[in-house]
Amino acid sequence: MAKKNSSTKDDLKRLREAPLITPTDLGAGASKDIAGGMNGILADVFALYLKTKNFHWHVCGPHFRDYHLLLDEQADQIFAMTDPIAERVRKLGGTTLRSIGQIARLHRLPDNDAEFVEAEATVLREAYATILASASLYSIAAQWNKAGIKTTKGNMWTGTSVKQTTFLASYPGGSTWPGTSNVNLTTADSTAAVFAVVTLGPNHTINVRNQAGSVNAIVDLLGYYAPSAAGKYGAVGPTRIVDTRNGLGGHTGALTNTQTVQFHLPAGSGVPADATSVIVNVTATGQTRTGYLALSPNCSGASSTVNYLQAGYTRANLTIAGLDASGGFCVYNSGGPAQAIIDLVGYVGPSGTALYVPFTAPVRIVDTRTGNGGQLAPLGADSKITENDAGIFDVPYGAKALLTGVVSANASAASYFEVFPGTSPPAQATSTLNFTKGRVVSNAAIASLSGGTFGVYNRFGTASAIIDLFGYFV
User: Fold this and answer.
1) Distance of alpha carbon 273 from alpha carbon 344, whole angstroms
2) 181 vs 83, 195, 306, 444, 472, CA distance in Å?
3) CA 96, CA 42: separation in Å to the nearest integer?
4) Which domain holds residue 87?
5) Cα separation of 81 and 237, whole Å?
6) Which of 30, 125, 158, 273 is the most buried (most CB within 10 A)?
């Protein structure tokens, strides 16, 4: 009899510890992402419930009694939403919220601790924010229905022979221009290159738009992303690995005309041995005449990575650099002399942890000239802005990084932007975008996320910041 009771207890223990098995045609990845998105919405609903009760308790002004009763009823209806959402997460095979602390970590609604609140400025605005967050869940589900989507990867867009200030924008064929840009050009910047990833339209087509005047466009194809691709993105850094001004990386002094130098990743870089490529931001500075730097695994220097102009103008560009069998890459200088600075921001290879998901239409998420993103003022000297896009702009919770285009405008002095994960720039300085007074300059940036957040830091003077979002890594 004792053995039977022991067996029964063991069976009950196994049942308690067994995962919930529910019928669904979703894969494990889709179930995890959608359940995570719904938990974020559930946290928002709980936060909205408490805010509504706050407004019920503290509303003031005309028609107090009407609003007081309306908000109480509204709070009851909001609370009634929580159980169906949580049960749906469980039916997907996931687990849901367990504590007030978890709600605090996941919710996206800003707190409102005002002593009293006016009715017209309360619930409608807060409910709208939750509706926007809920809409992002549809995009998460939609991404899992896009198994056949392919994007060109690492197109290097170069604009040259510029007649007037303009920009080039690339976007899927068969679609309309989404109001974003890739390469910003002026007559002073007669040649400029910027890395871009472009979603393919029907029949593998893309559109290229020139905003004004006439300009020659040059496109170098570096590769592509596809659902079946073996290489995945891995985040490291940002870390400076080469600086020929001080010998970092093993070479001291400017690269001379047609010189090629091979570099290897330093010990402790965080890049695994099976990586096939590294994602780096390449900066040319200290040059005496025009030319370009080219990165390649075989030291060919066949196509340009970053184009530089006259003395006193520092230029940067993001690129994906293939690695040779020894884990190295080459830098070729066409002009010269010119100093080379290289910051490591990621890698591609079998040990990577994230795949790229493109947007059908890029979206502008920050523009300090218009207040888009929350700041209506240029970045000051030694100042930063931070942006949290997890759960909005089609970016799911759990995204590792964003592919962005970063633009500086209206700069009062020569300076640089640094894109960094989280809310504080790293102790070791790196640069993403270098610019001079009065020029509009652009570069691509992979913004690694920490807690769903990334930031942009400005070193000198004041400058407007514009950020376009093209996709994410998850």
Assistant:
1) 15
2) 44, 12, 18, 10, 17
3) 9
4) 28-143
5) 42
6) 158
Per DSSP, the three-state class of 280 is strand
CA 264 to chain centre: 27
Give the model's pLDDT for residue 322: 86
Confidence of residue 221 (pLDDT cuts 50, 70, 90): confident
Instruction: Assess if residue 266 is contained within a domain.
Output: no
The gap from C-alpha 10 to its chain's centroid, in whole angstroms, comes to 48
Strand partners, 341: 243, 283
Most confident listed range (131-135, 246-250, 309-313) = 246-250
Q: Please indicate, yes or no, if residue 56 is contained in any of the structural domains.
A: yes
In a domain, 188, yes or no: no
Choose the weakest-confidence range: 113-127, 192-206, 276-290, 297-311: 113-127
Instruction: Give the lowest-confidence range in 23-32, 40-49, 114-123, 408-417.
Output: 114-123
Whether residue 276 contacts residue 231, with contact meaning beta carbons closer than 8 Å, is answered with yes
> Residue 49: which H helix or E strand, with range?
helix 28-58
361-384 pLDDT per residue, tens: 778 888 998 888 888 899 999 999
Give domain status of residue 97, yes or no.
yes
Q: Encode 143-176: b = buried (16+ Cβ within 10 Å), e = exposed.
A: beeeeeebbbbbbbbbbeebeebbbbbbbbeeee
Q: How many domains does the structure of the chain reveal?
A: 1
Please report the DSSP string for 371-416 in residue order: TBTS--S-B-TTEEEEEE-TTSTTPPTT--EEEEEEEEES-SSSEE
The domain that contains 126 carries what CATH number? 1.20.1260.10
Q: What DSSP element (H or E) covers 3?
A: helix 2-17
Burial class (CB in 10 A: 0-12, 13-18, 19+), 227: exposed
Residue 265 has pLDDT above 60, yes or no: yes
CA distance 311 to 138: 50
pLDDT at 161 over 50: no
